[in-house]
Design a protein that fits this description.
Jelly Rolls; mainly beta; 3% helix; globular
Length: 138
């Protein structure tokens, strides 16, 4: 049995590696597929303030995961935003501009997912990016 790395770049609007989230706004990434052979997963998320950071310039990040199609309508379904997403963490660009967090994601039977980023800054846009690494077996 061989163990490998599977790196997944989280993409935003039309296959971009990052997303500028407007002050007091939010953004949802594109769907990212996860490997069925993953035995562990971690995610690194980065937030860069597009202006001069101020108190309260934070981004809350959530995982919107799916196991598939719960009602048989032939489409995978995802939680909506911060209401039922799995909270990952807060990035504070006032404390560290270019703030980063790396944390484990459950290797449970999640089929795929999206990220939801909620910018808490009053006016500054914050650029969000993320990458997932999976340890896989073959």
């Amino acid at each position: 049995m061989a163990v490998g790395n599977n790196e997944i770049q989280v993409l935003w609007d039309t296959d971009q590696n990052s997303k500028s989230v407007a002050g007091a706004g939010n953004a949802t990434s594109e769907i990212f597929g996860l490997s069925a052979t993953a035995i562990s997963r971690a995610i690194t998320i980065k937030a860069d303030n597009a202006g001069t950071p101020a108190s309260g310039d934070t981004v809350d990040v959530y995982l919107l995961a799916t196991c598939g199609d719960p009602d048989g309508s032939s489409a995978d379904e995802y939680p909506a935003g911060d209401k039922h997403g799995q909270f990952i963490g807060v990035l504070d660009t006032n404390a560290v501009d270019g703030d980063k967090i790396t944390t484990e994601l459950s290797p449970a039977a999640i089929k795929d997912g999206k990220l939801y980023a909620k910018n808490n800054a009053a006016s500054n846009a914050i650029v969000v990016s993320a990458v997932i690494n999976e340890k896989t077996v073959s």
